[in-house]
Amino acid sequence: MSPAAFAFGVVLLALGVTAPAIAAIPSVRLVPALPHIQFERPLCLAAPDDGTGRLFVVEQGGKIHVVANDTAAVRSQIFLDLGARVRTTHNEEGLLAMALHPQFARNGQFFVYYSASNPRRTVLSRFTVSAADSNRADPKSEIVILEVAQPYGNHNGGMILFGPEGYLYLSLGDGGSAGDPHGNGQNLSTLLGKIIRIDINHRDGALAYAIPADNPFVGRAGARPEIWAYGLRNVWRMSFDRANGMLWAGDVGQNKWEEIDIIERGGNYGWNLREGFHPYGRAASAEMLLDPVYEYGRDDGASVTGGYVYRGRRFPELAGIYLFADYVTGTIWGLRFDEEGVSEHAVMLKQPSNISSFGETADGELLVTSFDGRIYRLQIDH
Questions:
Q1: Which residues pair with 198 in a beta bridge?
Q2: Is the peptide bond before 268 cis (omega within 30 degrees of 0)?
Q3: Most buried in the list 89, 135, 221, 256, measured by CB within 10 Å?
Q4: What pLDDT, on the 0 to 100 scale, is given for residue 382?
Q5: Exposed, middle or buried: residue 84 (CB in 10 Å: 0-12, 13-18, 19+)?
Q6: Could you tell me if 248 and 306 are in contact, meaning their C-beta atoms sit under 8 angstroms apart?
């Protein structure tokens, strides 16, 4: 507790006033959201805010399914099949993410991020929904926005999303192998080991996108102007809090520590100078490093899956809690965060299935994808 908070509590006690209690972080269960349907390694969800109640389910192998978000649904439909374009040689390669344009209901545009071969690279592309069928994408509509060479098969990052201001954010891993052998995390001349921010509604010269003028490294010699934050090993899932715009990220650790970060403009999160709060490899530089808001070690898991701050209406007791998981153990945690940091954290569920991602419905309810092939929703037993 901070000195200010302690002093405030003393005053309340002296006046005979009890401070309002914050409800404990509750336990949750996972209930199949689509009990009659199974997918093949689902790892991303997207929900259009167009009144249709649909979900787009991304499979690592390259297919995107569209399905009604209804427990009575008995089948899905293939929305787009990129299997012939997607590289899946390494366990961390594949079709990794999908994001809907903020004006998707009007323009039918969406974006995907996937691994490709010859040469090995990751690709950010835009597609458009078929004019003849809103439940099918036009496979010939691909416009490549960005390609990034990948020296190894692992650490491809893999989250794309739009910020409150309408710009697209993409997480890129450090390039792979182990320990960041090329020092990409701290190298501002490469996009590897970064979160980037681009304007996909405009173009700068030969680029298929524009650079937002307020990006932190615009005009800095030797730095890529796309970079929003750096010193990240392999951010696997990030999300914006609907209430305050904070960008949360789960950064997968090397061999000891997994971390949760709140991403700030121009922030350096320390990889590969440190892992979580702890020194790693060469000595840390004098440059200011931003601390994680939370870390956990190998006794609790081995690969963090970033989640969401709950802002739905179904479970008021979850309001403001950031939920995240570990892919390997299947454990789900929740934490509360305020201006002084993490005020509370707790295990919300221990279960064995690999949790590959979280997702949000259009109205802010959380869903969970698992490599057992299921899409789950949260349930609280009162």
A1: 168
A2: no
A3: 135
A4: 75
A5: exposed
A6: yes
